[in-house]
Specification:
It is a single chain. The N and C termini lie close together (8 Å). This protein has 442 residues and is an alpha/beta fold. It is built from 16 helices and 14 strands. Helix 2 packs across helix 3, helix 7 packs across helix 9 and helix 12 packs across helix 13. The chain has 2 domains: 176 residues, glycerate kinase, domain 1 (3-Layer(aba) Sandwich), CATH 3.40.1480.10; 181 residues, Glycerate kinase, MOFRL-like N-terminal domain (Rossmann fold). The protein is globular, with a radius of gyration of 22 Å.
Length: 442
């Protein structure tokens, strides 16, 4: 078996490799050079807007590129990011706001972005820098819905266990910006739209990344209402203003989100510049260099975090029976955690998955694993996730830190904090969903 320091180092280096390949400072300049080759720089007004956990870093990367390649082009803009995720810029205003529950700073910033977009004219260019987290940060409700109504709706959806894709279907139909409405403003004014997207969603559909402010939306008002019904969210959980708006939309009394037909003859392009799968491949390349056979399960693994942990424990047993060499099972995708009424819980979906895996592999002392969110924040606390190996398991037994007790209370943070097994990176300034790796020794 590998020594503790080496095992821990391999786990953390694999996570670092996954994050590094999605670094905005590296990928934003590459794509700007492709979108605007030499001699085809923006003409007219150039506005830069955006939102997400990685968007401030994207804005900083944009400015570095523009300073070098577009010294004569004037640009301005506004980008929203989560508190603590800012990056230095000179021309683009960075506003930090609430996430995952929106706040007034986010709504005010989103209103300013919409006002800026309304200044566009034919021949102008709108560059949108979008990443995961943008759905909450671009919370500008339609007329008749207050920020408190949006906060209450978001909180209800978070507690329901609804996956992020379903949450965003609802939020798109309450927003003046999401669901392609930002692009609609530019289209109506004859401007060109180039959106650069860092994906944190399974499938990497531009309509799902930050609820697709510049993408055609496939969902409808009926879909939004069906999602609320699915999770038994009605009067008492969802504000009456929200329910009334959705019902009015279903009746055709409110405009739908942007559709494919609206993009005919429009100058709108969405470029997905970083994905979870590319990050999994980078981690796989690293562990292969360390003597492990990488097995990528994919970036679309979803479900309740505890259930996914149990399922992957079974997968571990299957591979251990057949493996002839050390293996690394790598996966991505966003799990969910449903918190029962009255339970507080501490941690997030990555740590909860890992604790479930830890509990379900109590008879397999020679495995090590790490699970962490690539944005550096896993749920309610400040850790990115957690890790364990054989020595952590021995410590839990010696200290009588019982995983099942912490699982029952959804206190995965508390468990790994007791064992000094948290992954703490601080904000990484990117976001390509969750990362999971299990190291198997014969």
């Amino acid at each position: 078996m590998l020594q503790k320091t080496l095992t821990k180092e391999i786990l953390k280096n694999a996570f670092a490799a996954a994050v590094a390949v999605a670094d905005p400072q590296m990928i934003v300049p590459q794509y700007l050079a492709k979108i605007f080759p030499a001699g085809q720089e923006p003409r007219g007004k150039c506005l830069v807007v955006g939102a997400g956990k990685a968007s401030a870093s994207m804005a900083s990367a944009f400015e570095n590129f523009a300073m070098k390649h577009w010294p004569k082009i004037h640009y301005e803009g506004i980008v929203l990011t989560r508190y603590g995720h800012g990056s230095p810029t000179s021309q683009i205003k960075i506003i930090e706001a609430g996430h995952p529950v929106p706040d007034q700073a986010g709504m005010d910033g989103a209103r300013d972005i919409l006002a800026l977009a309304k200044q566009l004219a034919p021949g102008d260019v709108l560059i949108a820098l979008v990443s995961g987290g943008g759905s909450s940060l671009l919370t500008l409700p339609v007329e008749g819905i207050s920020i408190d109504d949006m906060r209450a709706t978001t909180q209800a959806l978070l507690r329901s266990g609804a996956p992020i894709e379903e949450m965003n279907v609802v939020r798109k139909h309450l927003s003046a910006i999401l669901g392609g409405n930002l692009a609609r403003v530019a289209i109506e004014r004859g401007a060109r739209v180039e959106a650069l997207l860092i994906s944190d969603v399974t499938g990497d559909d531009p309509a799902d990344i930050a609820s697709g402010p510049c993408a055609a939306d496939y969902s409808t008002y009926l879909d939004a209402l069906n999602i609320l019904e699915k999770y038994r969210l009605g009067v008492g959980s969802i504000p009456t203003s929200v329910l009334a708006h959705l019902k009015q939309g279903l009746a055709g009394e409110r405009p739908e989100t942007l559709k494919d037909i609206d993009l005919i003859n429009a100058q709108v392009a969405n470029h997905v510049i970083a994905t979870a799968y590319k990050s999994l491949e980078a981690a796989a390349q690293y562990v292969h260099s360390q003597g492990y056979e990488p097995i990528i399960l994919g970036d679309t693994i979803t479900g309740e975090a505890q259930e996914v942990g149990v399922e992957q424990a079974q997968l571990v047993r299957h591979h251990l029976r057949k493996a002839s060499q050390p293996q690394a099972i790598i996966s991505g995708g966003e799990c969910t955690v449903t918190i029962p009424a009255g339970a507080k819980g501490r941690g997030g979906r990555c740590s909860e998955y890992l604790l479930s895996l830890f509990s379900a592999t109590s008879d397999l002392p020679n495995i090590a694993a790490l699970a962490a969110d690539t944005d550096g924040i896993d749920g309610s606390e400040k850790n990115a996730g957690a890790w364990f190996d054989a020595d952590i398991r021995k410590a839990s037994e010696a200290m009588v830190v019982v995983p099942e007790t912490f699982l029952a209370g959804h206190d995965c943070y508390g468990f790994f904090a007791e064992l000094d097994a948290l992954v703490e990176t601080g904000p990484t300034l990117t976001n390509v969903n969750d990362f999971r790796i299990i190291l198997l020794e014969k």
